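Worked example 3 (structure in, sequence out).
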């Protein structure tokens, strides 16, 4: 009888201020309803993700984390060359709609593996710019001076595929712009100079801001969750029907599978053996190798983007690049497991 006089529970509206403007994704509490024009992504501790459409009620299970995502579109200015901050690209992008052919959407994997509680637009744009600059530095994309129409189209195609493969975003528009009038070049140079370590500074002071436990944990989580996706993408690469290429392809898949297994069984950062702590300097060394393996992982995503655009005959030539990337992953993961560099 007492339940007759109980007021019904009313779920408060989710706090989503700035979503779709300054933020791409914000946390969504249990019981909230996905707002109109948005979707929700729920990710478990093991990286499994699922989406909920607008109007659905969020009911996380097994410790899932929920984000409310506004698909955009968003606008930003990217600097393709760090040494030329006056050269820019004005980009308009949006979060891609779910692809029914994919078991896991790429943006959902991004949220599960490397996003925090909130995904700010400026932080996400910094990741896009970093991926673009690295692709140009590695020669995976080309944007020469006085770019011709054909060269610009080739760049746009590769750039679009890179952002889709790496982040799961679709580029709606991309035009070159002159950012010289909008940016204080002198202030940028002074900021870069201030960021450089002072001459004669001790290595202890320089490493004071480096948290090996945090950096190592974040890097290993990305490697653990994303390497299976890279392995699947490489397995589906369209290659010519040649026995030698087939054997080489299978060997790369075998080695990459062993790297993924190594990451999944990686020893604790701070322990040399059960009950035996590892020296702090060796912990820093292990964490640095985790970050280097993470850079190789980013190169692997960029390679998958190139493979998707290449014809079978040209894709076979990219196996040399795949071999280099897998070798870097093997070396850095082995060094992360080792107790010292002498054991590598």
């Amino acid at each position: 009888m007492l339940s007759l006089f109980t007021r019904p529970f009313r779920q408060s509206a989710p706090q989503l201020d700035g979503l779709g403007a300054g933020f791409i994704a914000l946390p969504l509490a249990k019981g909230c309803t996905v707002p109109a024009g948005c979707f929700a992504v729920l990710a478990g501790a093991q990286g499994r993700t699922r989406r909920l459409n607008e109007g659905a009620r969020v009911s996380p299970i097994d410790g899932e984390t929920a984000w409310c995502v506004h698909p955009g579109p968003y606008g930003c200015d990217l600097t393709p060359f760090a040494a030329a901050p006056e050269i820019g690209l004005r980009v308009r992008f949006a979060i891609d709609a779910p692809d029914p052919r994919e078991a896991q959407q790429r943006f959902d994997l991004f949220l599960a593996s490397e996003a925090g509680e909130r995904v700010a637009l400026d932080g996400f744009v910094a990741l896009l710019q970093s991926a673009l600059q690295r692709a140009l530095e590695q020669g995976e994309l080309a944007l020469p001076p006085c770019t011709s129409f054909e060269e610009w189209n080739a760049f746009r195609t590769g750039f679009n595929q890179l952002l889709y493969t790496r982040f799961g975003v679709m580029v709606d528009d991309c035009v070159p712009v002159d950012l010289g009038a909008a940016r204080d070049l002198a202030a940028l140079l002074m900021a870069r100079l201030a960021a450089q370590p002072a001459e004669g500074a001790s290595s202890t002071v320089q490493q004071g801001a480096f948290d090996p436990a945090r950096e190592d944990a974040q890097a290993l989580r990305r490697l653990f969750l994303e390497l299976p996706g890279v392995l699947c993408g490489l397995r589906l690469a369209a290659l010519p029907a040649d026995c030698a290429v087939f054997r080489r392809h299978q060997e790369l898949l075998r080695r990459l599978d062993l790297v993924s297994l190594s990451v999944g069984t990686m020893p604790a950062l701070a322990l040399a053996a059960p009950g035996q702590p590892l020296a702090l300097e060796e912990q820093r060394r292990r964490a640095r190798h985790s970050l280097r393996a993470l850079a190789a992982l980013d190169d692997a995503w960029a390679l998958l983007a190139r493979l998707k655009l290449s014809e079978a005959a040209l894709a076979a030539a990219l196996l040399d690049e795949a071999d280099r990337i897998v070798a870097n992953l093997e070396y850095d993961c082995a060094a992360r497991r080792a107790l010292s560099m002498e054991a590598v």
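Notes: The radius of gyration is 23 Å. Confidence is low (pLDDT under 50) at residues 4-9, 198-205.
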